[in-house]
Amino acid sequence: MIPTETETPIEQAKRTIENLADALMDIPIYTVFASDEPPSALLLDGWCLGCTSRSFDLALQPWLEAQGHWRGRSPAVFIDDIHLHRIAFEEANYSEDTHSIFGQTLTGILLHELAHVAESAPDFDPPTPENHGRAMALISLSHASEADLARPANWGHGPIWVRAALHLHQRAKKIGHATDIQRIYCGADYDIPEPTECKAALKSEKRLLAGVSIFNIRMIDAPPDYQDLWSESET
Ligand SMILES: [Zn+2]
């Protein structure tokens, strides 16, 4: 997206987030915002501030094509910027801090979803009716009510996700996008080890893996302290 002088602060924040996603993942990412008005049938129910799935881009493909934005397969994430802007307004008590808090909440949700993207290799298989069908089936699964699904306590936020999230948090900070770690957790209680403990346990690899693609970190053994932390939490 090319910057223009008529951009509103919200448009500027969205563009910043799109650029950050591409920079952190080293591949183009479809960053879709609620204010872009994607088809509501593709999105999780109202409580969800962000979502992604391995084939989410395929579900969005017809809509992205209609917008002239489809450029082939690539991971896609959704962010509810409208809801987040309201939260930022309330947190800032309607002051001028809203813009800075909004930027931090957007960054937090983006890092949350990108950490899910980094839990597996990106799916670049060409679109077919079969994988498009699988993408749509995943969407309907995400619409199932909580009671219908046998979910683990951490709701899919295990050691691979946390490790990717903490590396992304560090990398974003390094390129000028600092945010509180708690914003990545979106205030949710996943019943997992504290982020500060996880961060301390990963200390030894932070600089060591700084140049490694975020997609490859999961293939390298985590430091023993980190593995111990998670095995203690499961007992
Ligand atoms: Zn999540």
List the helices and strands and how they pair.
Layout: H1 9-25, E1 30-33, E2 50-52, H2 56-67, E3 76-79, H3 81-91, H4 98-117, H5 129-143, H6 159-174, H7 181-184, H8 195-201, H9 203-206, H10 224-234
Parallel strand pairs: 1-3
Antiparallel strand pairs: 2-3
The chain binds zinc ion (ZN).
Q: What is the gist of this entry?
A:
The chain has 235 residues and is mainly alpha-helical.
Most strands sheet: 3 strands, mixed
Order of helices and strands: HEEHEHHHHHHHH
Give me the count of strands: 3
Mean pLDDT level: 87
Q: How many structurally independent domains?
A: 1
Helix content: 40-55%
Structure, described:
This protein has 235 residues and is mainly α. It has helices at residues 9-25, 56-67, 81-91, 98-117, 129-143, 159-174, 181-184, 195-201, 203-206, 224-234, and strands spanning 30-33, 50-52, 76-79. The chain has a three-stranded mixed β-sheet, sandwiched between helices. Helix 1 runs parallel beside helix 4, helix 4 (98-117) crosses helix 6 and helix 8 packs antiparallel against helix 10. The longest helix has 20 residues, at 98-117. Zinc ion binds at residues 112, 116, 157. Zinc ion binds next to helix 4.
Structural descriptors:
10 helices, binds zinc ion, three-stranded mixed sheet, mainly alpha, 235 residues
